[in-house]
Design goal:
The chain is mostly helical.
């Protein structure tokens, strides 16, 4: 092999190695930047979602306070009139935009509700305990 050919191969090899090094460094920088931006966007979305949940929780808690102060509702609870309780809960839940409404006794047994049988246990035990400890609780249940 001639000197010219060996020189050409060495120069091509150096060029290929330099291009590969540049490509790897560029792709790594782009990957890190995309991950950083994605992480930042997820954190912003998480903060917005948390704020929306807090606001929704305040709205629902205010609606529950209105319902709890209603004389007819209190009378239905006192007499354990299940039909009236279900009707009132469904109507009130619909106005509040709630997907599910439940009325439970202090032990967590369902007295009336839209999706649970009367006498069954509260389906969201952790959320129920948190609400019992802190007067209210907001969470997402799938």
């Amino acid at each position: 092999m001639s000197f010219r050919r060996r020189l050409l191969l060495v120069m091509l090899a150096v060029l290929v190695v330099a291009q590969l090094g540049t490509a790897v460094a560029t792709l790594d920088t782009i990957r890190r930047d995309v991950l950083h931006k994605g992480s930042r966007e997820i954190n912003v979305a998480l903060d917005v979602t948390r704020q929306l949940l807090i606001e929704r929780g305040h709205h629902l808690r205010d609606n529950v306070a209105v319902l709890a102060s209603d004389f007819g509702f209190r009378a239905a609870v006192a007499t354990q009139d299940t039909n009236t309780l279900n009707s009132v809960l469904l109507n009130h839940g619909e106005r509040a935009g709630a997907d599910m409404v439940l009325l439970a006794d202090p032990e967590g047994r369902i007295l009336a509700g839209s999706h649970q049988a009367v006498g069954s246990e509260m389906p969201f035990k952790a959320l129920w305990q948190k609400a019992g400890n802190h007067e209210s609780a907001v969470g997402v249940v799938l």
